[in-house]
Amino acid sequence: MTIDDAIASLAGADRLLVALDFDGTLSPLVDDPMSARMAPAARDAVDAIASSPDTTVALVSGRSLSDLRVIAEHGDDSILLLAGSHGAEHWTPADGTRHPAAGEPTAAEQAERDRLRAEAEALVAGVPGAWIEPKTFGFAVPSRTVPADERAELHARVDALMAAQAPHWRRRTGHHIVEYAFREEGKDTAIAWLRAHTGATAVLFAGDDVTDEDALGSLGPGDVGVRVGAGETAASVRVAGIPELAEMLVRLAHERTRTRE
Ligand SMILES: [Mg+2]
């Protein structure tokens, strides 16, 4: 499918959901994860598509909801919906922060999470540039700042810990990151929730990483999946990078406004 075909098919939808990954899709990948911010062109594109008729925009990220709100500069008056922790945490303008039916981590889950996190921290302590990123439902091992020839050993060490102590946790990989979580929710869960919540008749989802493929693979006829950058994908459209996605969203916003008004 060409970008023109995708825009033409989405522009006339009765209710459109535009669901976007954050890191690498709207924001350049950076060494300090909490310093990530949307590229200016991406911010403008999100604003444009969010203000077009009968359209809802959601950010769908593996980040914890609280971190996502910081890096997306998302305030209580925002019209953007959020799905954090790959869909295990939600935010809507109507009811603010909440977790879905599965609920907050239990005391036992938190205790196991904190114990494993501490053990992982001890394991990576001597590796230059290595650290453990706390997550609501687990933790992650980013390796962007670790020397390239030490990354495999770093991940192998934490993998061994988790295989021995928490083999039931879900392991996910991304661009220079491995994440461990005691919840199963993937971005496909997030899309299903957002589709139902917004009553969307068509969905555009865009992402740049392996975990985005859960969402891309769950899309149906009439939806459009966009893969940002290289990599094997179930998406029907590929764009080269963040500027090209922003351009596509701006074009969609213009076409949708023209078609629907
Ligand atoms: Mg990403």
UniProtKB/TrEMBL annotation:
Its EC number is 3.1.3.12. It is an enzyme of class 3 (hydrolase). It comes from the Bacteria. Pathway: Glycan biosynthesis; trehalose biosynthesis. GO terms for molecular function: metal ion binding; trehalose-phosphatase activity. It catalyses: alpha,alpha-trehalose 6-phosphate + H2O = alpha,alpha-trehalose + phosphate. Keywords: Hydrolase, Magnesium, Metal-binding. InterPro entries: HAD-like_sf, HAD-SF_hydro_IIB, HAD_sf, OTSB-like, Trehalose_PPase. Its cofactor is Mg(2+). GO terms for biological process: trehalose biosynthetic process. Belongs to the trehalose phosphatase family. NCBIfam families: HAD-SF-IIB (TIGR01484), T6PP (TIGR00685). Removes the phosphate from trehalose 6-phosphate to produce free trehalose. This is Trehalose 6-phosphate phosphatase. It comes from Microbacterium aurum.
